[in-house]
Specification:
- By secondary structure, this protein is mainly β.
- The protein is built from one helix and five strands.
- Strand 3 and strand 4 form a beta hairpin.
Amino acid sequence: MDQLEHAVRRRLRVALTRRGSEYIVVAVRMTTAEQRDALVGRLPMTGEELTFRLDQIDSFQVIE
């Protein structure tokens, strides 16, 4: 959780996998979705914001 909060503060990229798909997003904010902690990330190519519930993320890595 600390690593993700750090990524949000510095707007760092995060590589994460969820259900077999890999995403690289720019961390925007931490929030709640369906009463669970979640990361909101922006896709660099399109600018679209995606919400990832932390309990659904298989793995992640902050890219500095």
